[in-house]
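Justification of computing resources. Each target in the renewal requires a structure prediction run like the one illustrated here; the chain below, 389 residues long, is used simply to show the kind of job we budget for.
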Amino acid sequence: MNMLPRSSRALLLLGLALLLLGAGLAVRAQSGRMRRAAAVSVPAAIADRHGLLGLDTAQLRARGFNDTAEVELIEIYQLVADGRLHEAVARSERLAARYPNFALAQLLRGDLLRAEAGQLQHFADARVAPADAAELAGLVREAHARLAAYANAPGPGQLPSNFVALGPRVAHAIVVDTSASRLYLFGRDAHGELHLVANYYVTQGKLGADKQRAGDLRTPLGVYFITRSVGQRWLAAIYGAGAMPLNYPNAWDRLLGRTGGGIWLHGVPSDVYARPPLASNGCVVLANDDLQSLMSMVEPDTTPVVITAHVDWLSPAQLAQRRAELRAMLARSGPAEHTLNSTLLYFRGKHELLVVQYPGKRDDKPITHRDYWAKENGQWRLFHAGVLS
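Resulting structure tokens:
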């Protein structure tokens, strides 16, 4: 174990502990001496066979954490918590070299080098001009979001409450958790069962979520669909490796008087690896590698994107019960096709919303129905019945 001067080690672990506390993780006292030096509990990672975040790397990858740079970053935090500073410094230098545009990795490397030299003054100890202070604060928020996502990773087999049922043409579904700055991609196996495919860090609007009007710098909440895929050659540099526009404002948004448009899933400029959690004009923004991976898997027109302030994770049995309840409600309320081969997407925000999509025919030509139901006085009511050509 590489030992650094007590004061610098205490400061480093203090900063890490505060970061973890901000991310909502449980931290424990490591020793009486460290408690006196840092005046705060720090992770007792050595005593935990799963380490800092309660899950080992293989388990996290199984839960969709497949951003290589992000996984490496968290592993370096683990080394710091274990007191293995020399190894953490070496790993951070390799990470920074492989991803020179990953600002958070560069910040961590700088902290570790100063800690090793006994010169660390505080966590995120970057010497920046006042004009760059906001950028530094954004990196700290990014670290909080990434660590919290690991700490609160959904359990094996858990599914979002939003994906009540997916029709046979729906191969993938996406849920964005704005409170966690995460995008979860689900796919269907050979038996039609949903499973988690990927779990990405994302950026949202500068003023958060719940978009209401054009230019309000917020990301919309609700049920949307990817309308098309746009390659990098057709885009300005700010959109990075590609884009997938969403159908905001949808019929429900228009009923509520929401305005604006141009809400996309897209990448970042080539000189940036990721942006802070609150940094877009309303779009959902991913690292370019993540965006390209996503674009290679999902299908425009059929892929739903539910953007919610918080994902309600359910067991398959709980989701099946909700499916049965909502299908029974639809069966009482309308034609049988509402429940056969239909996609049912649930959203709960200021209103409880159910989007029902199912196939049909008009003049012997196939069409797609997309209906919007909402609860009013405790009862489901059809507010809009739409047809997609």
